[in-house]
Amino acid sequence: MGIGKLAGVSLFALVASQPAFAQSGVPTASQGAETQSVNERDSAAKANPAPGRAAADAVQSTDDIVVTANKREQTLQDVPISVAVTSEQTIDRAQIRDLVDLQSVVPSLKVQQFNTVGQTNFIIRGFGNGNGNVGIEGSVGVFIDGVYRSRSAASLNDLPEVERIEVLRGPQSTLFGKNVSAGAINIVTKRPQFDVGGRLDLTVGDYGELIAKATATGPLSDTVAIRLSGTVDERDGYEHNVVTGHSINDRNRQSVRADILWNPVDRLSVRVIADYNEINERCCGAVQLFNGPATQFIAAPPPFGLGAAVTDPATKYSRNIAFDRDPTNHIVGKGISGEIDYDLSFAKFTSITAYRDQRDDTTEDVDFTGADLSYRADQTHTKTFTQEVRLTSSGKGPFSWLIGGFYDHENLDTSSQISFGSQIRAFADALSGPSAAFAGKSNLFALEYLQSLVTPSIKPGSTYFAAGQGVIAPYTLKQDSFSFFGQADYKLFDRLTLTGGVAYLSDRKASTSNIVLTDAFSQLNLQNVPQLATLAALGVPGITANSFGALGALQFFYGNAPTHGPVNYPNANESGILKGDKVTYLGRATYDLGPVNIYASYSTGWKAGAFNLSTDARAPDANGIGRTADPENVTLYEVGAKAAFHGGYLNLAVFKQTIKGFQSNAFTGTGYSLVNAGQESVKGAEIEAAYRPISWLSLTGAGTYLDPRYDSFLRAPCVSFDTVQCPLDPTTGQTPPFRNLSGQRPAGIPKWSTSASATINHDFGTFGAFLRGEYDYSSRTQLIDVVPAQYGSTETSNVNASLGFALPPQKIELLFFVRNLTKHNTLVGAFPTVAQTGSYTGYTNDPRTYGATLTKRF
User: Fold this and answer.
1) Alpha carbon 824 to chain centroid distance?
2) pLDDT tens digit string along 292-341?
3) In angstroms, rounded to a whole number, what is the distance separating the alpha carbons of residues 184 and 175?
4) Beta strands in 695-767 (DSSP E)
5) How many CA atoms lie within 13 A of 191 on its CB side?
6) Most-buried pick from 480, 487, 520, 611 (CB within 10 A)?
């Protein structure tokens, strides 16, 4: 039994042994399990004097939703920022178990989790990057209880009761500091309480799903309260590997968490959180979207091909994949944080100190077929220390302010190894084409034979593309970042408030590489092979030094690099150090019209430069290709209105956001192309509304419209399907490195994204019930620039539903749920198939799932 299961059993025993005292937040029968009464939340406030303690359902306008988007308590309607808030109730009813699910209720947020569960890419208003390359930091920062999470497995299940999730849209560099140039996700959990309480959740569902969660809270003394939590999350995979017979995309997660609150005096509180979580899963499966000639050869029966299993693009939603080995993910994360809040009368002092340690070990079949061509193993160890201090004014006059500082130190050690399998030679022989001089042999064999005449150590048929060859790419990355920030509000008139903010951000990264290329064929300069030059000098007819230059397409690593191999750093030309700093600022005017607040703002954001820590990162060359990217600079113009009325609210924002130097991190089929786009911009609008027309019906709706453009992108990576800008050079087998996408619409950004929900409540006297339905939609869009739209486009049209019953006297709730009710099929990601030019691979969405959750509160 794992540590998580042991903890879960212990927690159950702990909670079950406690008397059933009143627990704040339990719905009454008259409320039909829909909302929490004002009196209940007032009681909870006394027991839990935490910032943002009231997280009422979003439909209520009379009970204000409190957020900390400005790092101080404000109501959602008063905060002049475009922010979406998801309450605990919505998280439960919509079965939002990780941040991937969150995008179904926040249209402007897109979450990508493809080849590994340890790397998650968050996109807000079309901006975001970082997936698949640990050297590229995200543009959307994730904060859990005030602690910055540089690495996230996107899970919420390992947290105790989540009070709310705030999605802050637009640059947040002035207050949040690091890696928030596109936005921030702020997750707030419930603090320990001095009233004994707890919650047990047991979920069962299809695909063998079993989730057990427990949290218990109560006093250890008059001044110390504790919350203990644990989770076990298990499920069979959604996909079936037809080669190994195993299920893929399963769940196997455990976590424990201890949260201690010390209130020695009214003005001082100290909160310490320690957590441990482990993930051990077979993930993630991918299917073929289009099979080009190379992939068709893999599938063809001998002697015309390798006879290996390959998925059929026509049946990509069959939930079958074909890998010769299962992908695996083993992640262990742990951390500890301490928060000190002290009331100085004139201001509140806050200090948050945290240390986190995470290890990610993954393996992948990177040819994505049933052939034994190549596989990859990655190990990454990340250690992060963060420290934030701030001082927030407490006065109630016209002037309020906040000042603070943030420091982040991170050490990252990562290593990727790609190795050839037993069938790689037959595959390479076929791609090289038949030899004109050697009947039944390949051009690759002919090259080896001619070389062996001069260099006997070269063995025809076995020197190149031998099993075990490939590349090993270890890197280290040490970074230190800090920022100083301040923001002030001044109520110039009774209804007009002016806000100004400024931050100084500094970042230093020091990296080393020790790449070893063992793929002997990629090391050849095919334009000048020494042995062929010798034979040509001896007068061998028809032989030149570049007779086999066209085989450059088979040089999967560093083939078009000047050195035909890695150049490790630091070296004489590269220090391995990136340094940068920036001053960001914001200005805002807010006018209170009574039921409507209007605001106009201008803000800037910044994200530091990045290293390309992939297996094929290049030293800088004459083409402008390098292994680093310059910083991103963001500017935002936004106007908005927030209207509150009886039974609901309506919020609207219109904006133009521009990012200069966008760090494009496109996968090209053999590696990542890290380059800066000149400028990308997006014009858009967001609307959010909630309304309760009658007591038993609650309605919500949200929508986002985005019109993005590459204002300037001269160095987008070349692709094989763009034959005009990327013509194949028959003498080298290579294409130019770049193409021009200026003026085009960036891929991956839908024009329209919407979500809506309707909840019906009814009081049956002895119990309450609700029925909830929700719908989210994204218009059709090309997923990524390096995959043709006809193969890699998606449209989302998803329906979820839930039915719940509450027995308030027993504090028992039963929830039935279904996600993807209509079995909608769509793609969530696409990329060029590795080393199979003209083929494309993708990731499909989850199938329909259903289950039930039983909750017991104490």
Assistant:
1) 23
2) 999 999 999 999 999 999 999 999 999 999 999 999 999 999 999 999 99
3) 11
4) 697-712, 716-717, 738-739, 752-763
5) 27
6) 611
Instruction: Return the residue matching tokens 């339990």.
Output: 26
Residue 672 lies in a domain: yes
In angstroms, rounded to a whole number, what is the distance separating the alpha carbons of residues 20 and 9?
19
- CB–CB of 812/855 below 8 Å? yes
In a domain, 563, yes or no: no
What single-letter DSSP state applies at residue 540? Answer: -
Question: Along the chain (858 residues), what's the average pLDDT of each consecutive run of 10 residues?
Answer: 39 33 31 32 36 35 63 76 86 83 85 74 81 81 89 67 89 85 90 95 96 96 96 95 96 95 96 95 94 96 96 95 95 95 94 95 94 95 96 89 96 96 97 92 96 96 96 96 94 92 96 96 94 94 92 88 89 93 95 93 94 85 75 95 91 95 83 86 95 95 96 92 93 89 94 95 92 96 94 94 92 95 94 92 95 95
Q: Where are the beta strands (DSSP E) in 78-190?
A: 83-87, 109-112, 121-124, 140-144, 147-149, 162-169, 183-189
**Does residue 343 share a domain with residue 216?**
yes
**Counting runs of H as helices and runs of E as strands, what totals does the chain give?**
9, 44
Task: Kindly state whether residues 740 and 794 are assigned to the same domain.
Answer: yes
**Exposed/middle/buried for 498, CB within 10 Å: 0-12, 13-18, 19+?**
middle
C-alpha distances in angstroms, 244 versus 70, 238, 320, 634?
51, 15, 11, 47
Is 120:112 a contact under the CB 8 Å cutoff? yes
Is the bond preceding residue 293 a cis peptide, omega within 30 degrees?
A: no
State residue 307 phi and psi, 5-degree precision: 70, 30
> 469 is written with which tokens?
């060859």
Count Cα atoms within 13 angstroms, Cβ side, for 479: 28
Question: What's CA 132's distance to the chain center, in Å?
Answer: 10
Q: Is residue 302 part of a domain?
A: yes
Residue 471 included in any domain: no
Concatenated DSSP letters for 590-658?
Answer: EEE-SSEEEEEEEEEEEE--EE--STT-----TTS--SEEPPEEEEEEEEEEEEEETTEEEEEEEEEEE
One-letter amino acid for residue 366 of the chain = V
Phi, psi values for residue 58, rounded to 5°: -65, -20
Same domain, 338 and 440: no
Question: The domain containing residue 528 runs over which residues?
Answer: 424-466+520-554
As a whole number of angstroms, the distance between CA 192 and CA 50 comes to 9
